[in-house]
Amino acid sequence: MSRVTARRRTRRISPSGEIQRPDTLAVEEPLEIRIGGQSLAVTMRTPGNDVDLVHGFLLSEGMIGVAEEITAARYCTGTDDDGRQTYNVLDLTLRTAVPVRTRGFLSTGACGLCGKTALDEVRTLSRYPIAEGGPVVDTQVLAGMPDTLRSKQSLFEATGGLHAAGLFTPDGTALAVREDIGRHNAVDKVIGWALRQNRVPARDLVLIVSGRASFELVQKAVMAGIGMLGAVSAPSSLAVDLAAEAGLTLAGFLRGETMNVYTHGGRITASPNRKPRLA
Protein backbone atom coordinates (compact mmCIF):
# COMPACT_ATOMS: atom_id res chain seq x y z
CA MET A 1 0.00 0.00 0.00
CA SER A 2 1.14 3.56 -0.68
CA ARG A 3 2.64 5.62 2.12
CA VAL A 4 0.39 8.01 4.05
CA THR A 5 3.20 10.32 5.21
CA ALA A 6 6.37 11.61 3.57
CA ARG A 7 9.47 13.47 4.77
CA ARG A 8 10.65 16.71 3.18
CA ARG A 9 13.45 19.12 4.07
CA THR A 10 12.31 22.43 5.56
CA ARG A 11 13.88 25.64 6.83
CA ARG A 12 12.27 26.46 10.15
CA ILE A 13 12.37 30.12 11.20
CA SER A 14 11.59 31.18 14.76
CA PRO A 15 12.52 34.05 17.10
CA SER A 16 15.44 31.96 18.33
CA GLY A 17 16.91 31.52 14.86
CA GLU A 18 16.80 29.19 11.88
CA ILE A 19 17.30 25.45 11.56
CA GLN A 20 17.28 22.99 8.67
CA ARG A 21 15.33 19.87 9.49
CA PRO A 22 12.99 17.28 7.90
CA ASP A 23 9.24 17.71 8.25
CA THR A 24 6.52 15.05 8.11
CA LEU A 25 3.81 15.77 5.55
CA ALA A 26 0.54 14.10 4.63
CA VAL A 27 0.77 12.27 1.32
CA GLU A 28 -1.57 13.47 -1.42
CA GLU A 29 -2.02 11.19 -4.42
CA PRO A 30 -4.71 10.78 -7.07
CA LEU A 31 -7.13 7.88 -6.93
CA GLU A 32 -8.78 7.04 -10.23
CA ILE A 33 -12.08 5.24 -9.79
CA ARG A 34 -13.02 2.98 -12.69
CA ILE A 35 -16.21 1.04 -13.35
CA GLY A 36 -15.60 -2.01 -15.52
CA GLY A 37 -12.38 -0.50 -16.82
CA GLN A 38 -13.96 2.87 -17.70
CA SER A 39 -12.77 5.94 -15.82
CA LEU A 40 -15.47 7.44 -13.59
CA ALA A 41 -13.67 10.03 -11.47
CA VAL A 42 -10.31 11.07 -10.06
CA THR A 43 -10.05 12.35 -6.51
CA MET A 44 -6.98 13.62 -4.68
CA ARG A 45 -6.76 11.69 -1.43
CA THR A 46 -4.48 10.38 1.30
CA PRO A 47 -3.91 6.66 0.54
CA GLY A 48 -5.64 4.23 2.86
CA ASN A 49 -9.17 2.86 3.25
CA ASP A 50 -9.66 3.28 -0.50
CA VAL A 51 -12.32 0.57 -0.71
CA ASP A 52 -14.33 2.35 1.97
CA LEU A 53 -13.81 5.62 0.08
CA VAL A 54 -15.23 4.30 -3.19
CA HIS A 55 -18.20 2.68 -1.43
CA GLY A 56 -19.01 5.98 0.23
CA PHE A 57 -18.45 7.94 -2.98
CA LEU A 58 -20.77 5.75 -5.06
CA LEU A 59 -23.43 5.82 -2.34
CA SER A 60 -23.18 9.62 -2.14
CA GLU A 61 -23.63 9.85 -5.90
CA GLY A 62 -26.69 7.60 -5.86
CA MET A 63 -25.00 4.86 -7.89
CA ILE A 64 -25.34 2.16 -5.21
CA GLY A 65 -27.50 1.68 -2.16
CA VAL A 66 -26.00 -1.42 -0.55
CA ALA A 67 -22.46 -2.78 -0.42
CA GLU A 68 -23.43 -5.92 -2.35
CA GLU A 69 -23.94 -3.84 -5.49
CA ILE A 70 -20.14 -3.72 -5.77
CA THR A 71 -19.16 -7.28 -6.59
CA ALA A 72 -15.40 -6.75 -6.99
CA ALA A 73 -12.77 -4.08 -6.36
CA ARG A 74 -9.20 -4.50 -7.52
CA TYR A 75 -6.17 -2.22 -7.78
CA CYS A 76 -4.43 -1.64 -11.09
CA THR A 77 -0.91 -1.17 -9.78
CA GLY A 78 1.94 0.82 -11.27
CA THR A 79 5.23 2.36 -10.14
CA ASP A 80 6.26 5.89 -9.22
CA ASP A 81 9.42 7.77 -10.24
CA ASP A 82 11.38 5.98 -7.50
CA GLY A 83 10.26 2.54 -8.62
CA ARG A 84 7.87 2.04 -5.71
CA GLN A 85 4.59 0.28 -6.44
CA THR A 86 1.55 2.53 -6.40
CA TYR A 87 -2.11 1.77 -5.78
CA ASN A 88 -3.78 4.75 -7.39
CA VAL A 89 -6.30 3.11 -9.72
CA LEU A 90 -9.22 1.12 -8.30
CA ASP A 91 -11.39 -0.76 -10.79
CA LEU A 92 -14.86 -1.79 -9.63
CA THR A 93 -17.33 -4.32 -10.93
CA LEU A 94 -20.97 -3.50 -10.27
CA ARG A 95 -23.77 -6.02 -10.09
CA THR A 96 -25.81 -3.82 -12.43
CA ALA A 97 -24.11 -1.91 -15.23
CA VAL A 98 -24.33 1.88 -15.20
CA PRO A 99 -23.66 4.33 -18.06
CA VAL A 100 -20.31 5.59 -16.78
CA ARG A 101 -19.59 8.16 -19.47
CA THR A 102 -22.94 9.90 -19.15
CA ARG A 103 -23.01 9.84 -15.37
CA GLY A 104 -23.64 13.28 -13.86
CA PHE A 105 -22.44 13.93 -10.33
CA LEU A 106 -24.19 16.02 -7.72
CA SER A 107 -23.40 19.70 -7.80
CA THR A 108 -20.91 21.11 -5.30
CA GLY A 109 -20.07 24.60 -4.14
CA ALA A 110 -17.82 24.99 -7.17
CA CYS A 111 -20.64 24.87 -9.72
CA GLY A 112 -23.02 27.53 -10.90
CA LEU A 113 -26.30 25.65 -10.54
CA CYS A 114 -28.91 27.22 -8.33
CA GLY A 115 -29.51 25.96 -4.82
CA LYS A 116 -33.04 24.76 -5.56
CA THR A 117 -31.76 22.48 -8.33
CA ALA A 118 -29.14 21.00 -6.00
CA LEU A 119 -31.67 20.40 -3.21
CA ASP A 120 -34.12 18.74 -5.58
CA GLU A 121 -31.39 16.49 -6.96
CA VAL A 122 -30.41 15.16 -3.53
CA ARG A 123 -34.03 14.57 -2.56
CA THR A 124 -34.63 12.64 -5.76
CA LEU A 125 -31.54 10.43 -5.50
CA SER A 126 -31.53 9.62 -1.77
CA ARG A 127 -32.73 6.09 -1.02
CA TYR A 128 -32.82 6.60 2.74
CA PRO A 129 -35.19 9.32 4.00
CA ILE A 130 -34.25 10.43 7.50
CA ALA A 131 -36.88 9.32 10.00
CA GLU A 132 -38.49 11.71 12.44
CA GLY A 133 -36.92 9.77 15.30
CA GLY A 134 -33.18 9.78 14.68
CA PRO A 135 -30.52 9.95 17.40
CA VAL A 136 -31.19 11.82 20.63
CA VAL A 137 -27.95 13.23 22.02
CA ASP A 138 -27.18 15.11 25.21
CA THR A 139 -25.50 18.48 24.66
CA GLN A 140 -22.47 17.57 26.78
CA VAL A 141 -22.02 14.28 24.93
CA LEU A 142 -22.25 16.03 21.57
CA ALA A 143 -19.83 18.73 22.69
CA GLY A 144 -17.30 16.05 23.65
CA MET A 145 -17.35 14.24 20.31
CA PRO A 146 -14.88 16.58 18.54
CA ASP A 147 -12.33 15.96 21.31
CA THR A 148 -12.76 12.22 20.87
CA LEU A 149 -12.36 12.65 17.12
CA ARG A 150 -9.22 14.71 17.63
CA SER A 151 -7.71 12.13 20.00
CA LYS A 152 -8.00 9.48 17.28
CA GLN A 153 -6.33 11.56 14.54
CA SER A 154 -2.96 9.83 14.59
CA LEU A 155 -1.92 11.16 11.16
CA PHE A 156 -2.89 14.71 12.11
CA GLU A 157 -0.59 14.43 15.13
CA ALA A 158 2.27 13.60 12.78
CA THR A 159 1.51 16.06 9.99
CA GLY A 160 -0.99 18.72 11.11
CA GLY A 161 -2.46 18.61 7.61
CA LEU A 162 -5.43 16.24 7.54
CA HIS A 163 -9.20 16.46 7.96
CA ALA A 164 -11.13 13.86 9.90
CA ALA A 165 -14.63 12.43 10.04
CA GLY A 166 -16.12 10.06 12.57
CA LEU A 167 -19.33 8.14 13.14
CA PHE A 168 -20.57 8.08 16.73
CA THR A 169 -23.36 6.44 18.68
CA PRO A 170 -25.63 8.76 20.71
CA ASP A 171 -23.71 7.92 23.90
CA GLY A 172 -20.47 9.26 22.39
CA THR A 173 -18.83 5.99 21.33
CA ALA A 174 -16.69 6.40 18.21
CA LEU A 175 -17.42 3.56 15.78
CA ALA A 176 -15.14 4.65 12.94
CA VAL A 177 -12.73 7.54 12.39
CA ARG A 178 -11.03 8.27 9.08
CA GLU A 179 -8.49 10.94 8.05
CA ASP A 180 -7.76 12.38 4.64
CA ILE A 181 -6.28 15.40 2.92
CA GLY A 182 -9.83 16.13 1.65
CA ARG A 183 -12.72 16.49 4.09
CA HIS A 184 -15.13 14.99 1.54
CA ASN A 185 -12.90 11.92 1.22
CA ALA A 186 -12.80 11.47 5.00
CA VAL A 187 -16.61 11.51 5.04
CA ASP A 188 -16.80 9.07 2.12
CA LYS A 189 -14.45 6.73 4.00
CA VAL A 190 -16.59 6.57 7.16
CA ILE A 191 -19.80 6.28 5.14
CA GLY A 192 -18.21 3.51 3.09
CA TRP A 193 -17.25 1.76 6.33
CA ALA A 194 -20.84 1.99 7.54
CA LEU A 195 -22.15 0.68 4.22
CA ARG A 196 -19.84 -2.33 4.34
CA GLN A 197 -20.85 -2.99 7.96
CA ASN A 198 -24.56 -2.91 7.04
CA ARG A 199 -25.04 0.26 9.12
CA VAL A 200 -26.67 2.23 6.28
CA PRO A 201 -29.12 3.85 6.61
CA ALA A 202 -27.37 5.31 9.64
CA ARG A 203 -30.32 7.20 11.10
CA ASP A 204 -29.24 6.44 14.67
CA LEU A 205 -25.66 7.71 14.25
CA VAL A 206 -23.91 11.08 14.48
CA LEU A 207 -21.38 12.22 11.89
CA ILE A 208 -18.69 14.58 13.23
CA VAL A 209 -16.35 16.48 10.90
CA SER A 210 -13.23 18.40 11.84
CA GLY A 211 -13.88 21.45 9.65
CA ARG A 212 -16.83 23.29 8.21
CA ALA A 213 -20.12 21.78 7.07
CA SER A 214 -20.42 22.40 3.34
CA PHE A 215 -23.39 21.49 1.15
CA GLU A 216 -21.37 18.53 -0.14
CA LEU A 217 -20.87 17.05 3.34
CA VAL A 218 -24.52 17.49 4.26
CA GLN A 219 -25.45 15.88 0.95
CA LYS A 220 -23.30 12.85 1.75
CA ALA A 221 -24.88 12.53 5.21
CA VAL A 222 -28.37 12.73 3.72
CA MET A 223 -27.57 10.13 1.07
CA ALA A 224 -26.46 7.73 3.83
CA GLY A 225 -29.54 8.44 5.95
CA ILE A 226 -27.46 9.84 8.82
CA GLY A 227 -29.60 11.60 11.42
CA MET A 228 -27.17 14.19 12.82
CA LEU A 229 -24.12 16.08 11.61
CA GLY A 230 -21.84 18.10 13.87
CA ALA A 231 -19.04 20.34 12.60
CA VAL A 232 -16.23 22.09 14.41
CA SER A 233 -16.63 25.13 12.16
CA ALA A 234 -19.44 26.90 10.29
CA PRO A 235 -22.00 25.55 7.83
CA SER A 236 -22.87 27.22 4.55
CA SER A 237 -26.33 28.62 3.85
CA LEU A 238 -27.13 25.89 1.32
CA ALA A 239 -25.94 23.22 3.77
CA VAL A 240 -28.46 24.52 6.32
CA ASP A 241 -31.21 24.61 3.70
CA LEU A 242 -30.57 21.00 2.68
CA ALA A 243 -30.38 19.78 6.30
CA ALA A 244 -33.67 21.51 7.10
CA GLU A 245 -35.44 20.03 4.11
CA ALA A 246 -34.02 16.51 4.56
CA GLY A 247 -34.72 16.20 8.29
CA LEU A 248 -31.04 16.21 9.31
CA THR A 249 -30.00 17.75 12.62
CA LEU A 250 -27.11 20.12 11.89
CA ALA A 251 -24.90 21.68 14.57
CA GLY A 252 -21.86 23.88 13.96
CA PHE A 253 -19.12 25.57 15.94
CA LEU A 254 -18.80 22.55 18.26
CA ARG A 255 -16.08 24.01 20.44
CA GLY A 256 -15.76 23.37 24.14
CA GLU A 257 -19.21 23.62 25.71
CA THR A 258 -20.76 25.81 23.01
CA MET A 259 -22.46 25.05 19.71
CA ASN A 260 -24.90 26.51 17.20
CA VAL A 261 -27.87 24.28 16.35
CA TYR A 262 -29.26 25.16 12.92
CA THR A 263 -31.87 22.53 12.09
CA HIS A 264 -34.06 19.93 13.79
CA GLY A 265 -32.73 20.74 17.24
CA GLY A 266 -35.22 18.56 19.06
CA ARG A 267 -32.77 15.66 18.90
CA ILE A 268 -30.26 17.60 21.02
CA THR A 269 -31.29 17.59 24.66
CA ALA A 270 -30.02 19.94 27.37
CA SER A 271 -28.09 18.41 30.27
CA PRO A 272 -29.94 18.59 33.61
CA ASN A 273 -27.28 20.90 35.11
CA ARG A 274 -27.26 23.29 32.16
CA LYS A 275 -29.18 26.47 32.93
CA PRO A 276 -30.95 28.28 30.09
CA ARG A 277 -29.69 31.79 29.40
CA LEU A 278 -31.59 34.56 27.67
CA ALA A 279 -29.86 36.32 24.77
Automatic annotation (TrEMBL):
SUPFAM superfamilies named in the record: Cytidine deaminase-like
Pfam families per record: FdhD-NarQ
Top-rank lineage group of the source organism: Bacteria
A GO cellular-component term linked to this record: cytoplasm
Family note: Belongs to the FdhD family.
PANTHER family: FORMATE DEHYDROGENASE, SULFUR CARRIER PROTEIN FDHD
Function: Required for formate dehydrogenase (FDH) activity. Acts as a sulfur carrier protein that transfers sulfur from IscS to the molybdenum cofactor prior to its insertion into FDH.
Protein name: Sulfur carrier protein FdhD
UniProt source species: Nocardia ninae NBRC 108245
Organism phylogeny: Bacteria, Bacillati, Actinomycetota, Actinomycetes, Mycobacteriales
Primary gene name: fdhD
